[in-house]
Amino acid sequence: MRIALIGTDKRVQEFQAAFGNLHEIVRIQEKELPNEDLTLYNAIFDLNYENTPEHLPYYAPLKNRPVVISAVRTTLQREINRIGEVKCALLGMNCMPTFIDRPIIECTVADRSDRDTWFNLGELLNKKVSIVDDRVGMVTPRVVCMIINEAFFTLQEGTATIADIDLGMKLGVNYPFGPFEWAKKIGYREVYQVLQAVYDDLCDDRYKISHLLKQYALDHKE
Questions:
Q1: SS (HEC) of the chain
Q2: Structural domains in the chain plus CATH codes
Q3: What's the pLDDT tens digit per position in 142-194?
């Protein structure tokens, strides 16, 4: 399978580590996208789409072509409504760093008829596919970012140190990383943006962001 890949260095590297030995992956720089013949590819993965939603008009005319976009802070239906007709098979994926190269791909569809498209892609990528509701935050990103936010509240209150909180989460619930470790790997700004998107969507106080996390996001603009 020939895949067109668009995204930041961190996300592209993780995608290539996961799938580069299985398929031909061609990275396309954003500035090259307007002149690229996307019909030459079997699938398009835009891992940074939420930061570049202006890319959708390039993908929309690709009839029945699988186009996978990062869709944690937005929804597929919202993007489709934004531009009108979309002829491609628009699919959503959790493209946050640390979640791309995992045994299960967390993904969404706007149309139930696209479920088979995702399952077929999963087979080609040699990954299991878990299709969740098309909603802001998906499932895993929302839960992990909430845990990170609570850890920042705990640190902010002086209840425990970063090292203690990270160790407690890894030993207590067998997480691969502690919340502060995970926030650094994902990117503090990314965590902040996910929580802000979920809060804006639901207006639920559970997603109010710790002042300390907000400060980390401002200080680290990676």
A1: CEEEEECCHHHHHHHHHHHCCCCEEEECCHHHHHHCCHHHCCEEEECCHHHCHHHHHHHCCCCCCEEEEECCCCCHHHHHHHHCCCCCEEEEECCCCCCCCCCEEEEEECCHHHHHHHHHHHHHHCCEEEECCCCCCCCHHHHHHHHHHHHHHHHHCCCCCHHHHHHHHHHHHCCCCCHHHHHHHHCHHHHHHHHHHHHHHHCCHHHCCCHHHHHHHHHCCC
A2: 2-131 (3.40.50.720), 140-219 (1.10.1040.50)
A3: 999 999 999 999 999 988 999 999 998 888 888 889 999 999 999 999 999 99
